[in-house]
Specification:
The protein is an alpha/beta fold. Helix content is 45%, strand content 16%. Bound molecules: adenine.
Length: 418
């Protein structure tokens, strides 16, 4: 079996972690049991480019149980849990190409290793697999039935490929399922971002001015949890509706150049580049802490810090101190990469359960229906989204009401008015 992981001897620790996480992913377990009986993915090759975490491990186990041959590579150089990668190879017989801290060259070499296996389905988190396939391996397109995309940034990239007429095959936007973004993006990013900040810094959040740039589902989660910890939350936005929403949710809203002067902690979650740039660095107080929870490491202009700082020092695990020419020190978590995975362990199993249930069911859907789909970005079918929510409720022991025939008739008719 081909693989490239840091150290296979870490596998026991990885297996324990995967099993612990699995106990918190009941929907995926239910799907795995069915997949094991029905083998809906039999004979298909799945190439996955995802954060190599214990949650992802349980997804790829499920796909394998469904009969697929699965190859996994990392979707970020700093998010790989080396012990999990080792366990996947040693204990679960899954080919993994991922080493935490790999450089850009190795990152892409690993993507090519997965592409070499001629996938029939691609699963992406950020669209690096599809874009590399399109740019450099066009010969492989004919093997692919379709793909799925995990994250907001990836969906935006893929929609832009669709708009430019270059999307190579149909894609299911798993991110856009309700049972994905309402929970993973909001509660997952909310909690794991706070977790990453605390692990990197061990600072008290109560009483701090905490600036959140971007008020999408992830930003809403981060702002809500920071407020819960007693921070004074400020939101910066470019979208007028989201800015209004943030304000009416009780947060102060202002441009980054104003927020820069008062913030103690800055978190970017916008999906865009240079949100915190030279001007903001110059206005910041001494000692501020910055981190990014968006997909790519472009939101905080790290290059400016690298080129202009008079010194740089790693002072804690995943925390760098930059001394600026003014003498002021600023701190950057996780090299500006998504800090919830670089400095913590990403979202907990309970939310990844639903995200990855959508992934597993979308693979099954693509195999059944891929030949009817066009080269477009599709929503997760509503039946799948609702099935995930129903299984989750059932597994959590929560029952809900059903419409009476009278109610069902009432909401589907127009003729009963005032
Ligand atoms: N994205 C965010 N958190 C994650 C996790 N724990 N595993 C995989 N992908 C993630």
């Amino acid at each position: 079996m081909e693989y490239d992981v840091k150290d296979l001897s870490l596998h026991e620790k990885g297996r324990e972690k995967i099993e612990w996480t699995d106990a918190h992913m009941p929907v995926l377990r239910a799907i795995r049991r069915r997949f094991s009986r029905e083998k809906p993915l039999k004979g298909k090759v799945i190439g996955a480019c995802l954060h190599v975490t214990s949650e992802t491990a349980n997804l790829v186990r499920t796909l394998k149980e469904g009969g697929a041959e699965v190859y996994l590579t990392a979707s970020n150089p700093l998010s790989t849990q080396d012990e999990v990668a080792a366990a996947l190879v040693e204990d679960y017989g899954i080919s993994v190409f991922a080493v935490r801290g790999e450089d850009r060259e190795l990152y892409y070499k690993h993507i090519h290793k997965v592409l070499d296996k001629k996938p029939n389905i691609t699963i992406d988190d950020g669209a690096d697999l599809v874009s590399t396939l399109f740019n450099e391996r066009k010969d492989l397109i004919e093997n692919v039935i379709g793909g799925s995309e995990e994250t907001t940034t990836g969906v935006i990239r893929l929609k832009s490929m669709e708009k430019d007429g270059v999307l190579p095959y149909p894609i299911i936007a798993v991110n856009d399922a309700y049972t994905k973004h309402l929970f993973d993006n909001r509660y997952g990013t909310g909690q794991s971002t706070i977790d990453g900040i605390l692990r990197a810094t061990n600072i008290l959040l109560a009483g701090k001015t905490f600036v959140v740039s971007g008020y999408g589902w992830c930003g809403k989660g981060v702002a809500m949890r920071a407020k819960g910890m007693g921070a004074n939350v400020v939101v910066t936005e470019v979208d007028s509706i989201r800015a209004l929403e943030a304000f009416m949710d009780g947060f102060r809203v202002m441009p980054i150049r104003e927020a820069a002067k008062i913030g103690d902690i800055f978190v970017t979650v916008t999906g865009d580049k240079n949100v915190i740039d030279k001007e903001a660095f110059e206005l910041m107080k001494d000692g501020v802490i910055m981190g990014n929870a968006g997909h790519f490491d472009v939101e905080i202009n790290k290059q400016y810090l690298e080129e202009n700082a008079v010194s740089k020092k790693r002072i804690r695990h995943e925390l760098d101190e930059y001394k600026l020419p003014s003498g002021k020190k600023v701190y950057l978590i996780g090299e500006g990469r998504l800090l919830n995975l670089a400095s913590a362990e990403g979202h907990p199993g309970e939310v990844m359960d639903m995200s990855f249930a959508n992934q597993a069911l979308s693979c099954e859907y693509l195999i059944k229906n891929g030949n009817k789909l066009e080269k477009k970005v599709y929503k997760v079918p509503d039946e799948i989204d609702r099935e995930v929510a129903s299984i989750k409720l059932k597994e959590m022991g929560i029952s809900i009401d059903t419409l009476t025939p009278e109610q069902a008739k009432y909401i589907s008719s127009w003729n009963e008015g005032t």
